[in-house]
Amino acid sequence: MTDAAPWLVVGLGNPGPEYARHRHNVGFMVVDLLAQRAGLRFGKHRRVVADVAEGRLRVGGPRLVLVKPLTFMNLSGGPVAGLAQFYKVPREQIIAVHDELDIPWTQLRLKQGGGEGGHNGLRSMSSSLGGKDYLRVRFGIGRPPGRQNPADFVLSDFSSVERKELDFFVDRTADAVEMIIDQGLEAAQNRYHAD
């Protein structure tokens, strides 16, 4: 890891108000909260199709670039790779925050590398970055009820019961991202995988 390069924290989601509260957009929700905590504002990047917010987690803290790709989910990798090149960020300092069907609701899992589990945003990132060894913060949304198509499930709003817990879970996920940056993946896994 290089101290000169910032951390690139990528929230995966779909642009546009009609997608804003969908399960597939939890990545956007988490980076929005991180920006709010750090007093940063998003703006369109001049070279890449993404909204970015640049700054530090706190005074004297590590440099940070928060990213919301403005392509649709399955094309997220292009903007992420463009920003990684622009800011000279190694893959080990890229964190993708995304929804995860294979993890139960309210659970959080953190890892580096591995497969994409059918997640088109991750597949696009791995392809565009030329590797899978970036970090992932996996926000559990659980499996769809009954026979609902998983694609329809991720592109739907949270249930009324889930919405009661959503803000707390988004807050906890933002805490996990900060802990990875401050203390490393292993420390964050020990803290958040215990729950």
TrEMBL record:
Q: What is the taxonomic lineage of the source species?
A: Bacteria, Bacillati, Actinomycetota, Actinomycetes, Micromonosporales
Q: Which PROSITE patterns match?
A: PEPT_TRNA_HYDROL_2
User: NCBIfam families per the record?
Assistant: pth (TIGR00447)
Subunit details for this protein?
Monomer.
Q: Which organism is it from?
A: Dactylosporangium salmoneum
Catalytic residues of the enzyme:
H24
Job description of the protein: Catalyzes the release of premature peptidyl moieties from peptidyl-tRNA molecules trapped in stalled 50S ribosomal subunits, and thus maintains levels of free tRNAs and 50S ribosomes. Hydrolyzes ribosome-free peptidyl-tRNAs (with 1 or more amino acids incorporated), which drop off the ribosome during protein synthesis, or as a result of ribosome stalling.
Q: What is its main location?
A: cytoplasm
The molecular function terms in GO held by this entry are: hydrolase activity
Sequence positions that bind tRNA = Y19, F72, N74, N120
Q: Where is this site: Discriminates between blocked and unblocked aminoacyl-tRNA?
A: N14
Q: What name goes with this protein? A: Peptidyl-tRNA hydrolase
Gene3D superfamilies assigned:
Peptidyl-tRNA hydrolase
| Cross-referenced CDD domains | PTH
